[in-house]
Design goal:
This protein is mainly α. The chain is built from 8 helices and no strands.
Length: 156
């Protein structure tokens, strides 16, 4: 498996304002990717979600494209990537455009008006993940392992 932070997360965060690429952001985004797809599945098995962060068209994609705090930022990202900020197009692209998908992940977290959780804030991280992603079948039993693994990745 490639280095998740260097391969999938850093290129996306480089498209956003520098202050959005904190250690907390990198770890949290990595944890969510581990929880959602283990960074193995670009399309949800038996479902409509796309990308390593498993976005649904009318969930995370539409949410980021329309939320007042994330909309201007994702529009700027799309301009930089020469991609129309369109729900259908972005939904299709996040399955294979990892930098764009990472931006959607970071900006979905940006819509939550709370500070990102720290290394030992496993429960707060879970709560924010549930608020932002609204998973249909949340698996809390795997969350702590994903979160701790993600923090280990950013602290190398």
């Amino acid at each position: 498996m490639p280095n998740i932070i260097d391969t999938y997360i850093n290129p996306g965060l480089a498209l956003l304002p520098v202050d959005m690429g904190t250690k907390q952001a990198r770890a949290f985004i990595a944890a969510i990717g581990l929880q959602e797809s283990k960074f193995e599945y670009r399309k949800q098995i038996g479902g409509p979600a796309r990308g390593f962060w498993q976005f649904e068209k009318y969930g995370g994609i539409k949410g980021v494209l329309t939320h007042p705090s994330s909309k201007p930022l994702i529009i700027e990202v799309c301009k930089r990537l020469v991609v129309p900020a369109d729900i259908d197009l972005c939904y299709g692209l996040v399955a294979y455009h990892d930098a764009l998908a990472c931006c959607f992940a970071r900006l979905l977290l940006w819509t939550i008006p709370r500070p990102l959780p720290g290394k030992d804030d496993v429960e707060e991280a879970w709560n924010q993940y549930i608020m932002a992603w609204g998973p249909g079948k949340p698996r809390k039993e795997t969350w702590e392992g994903c979160y701790r693994s993600a923090w280990a990745m950013v602290e190398i």
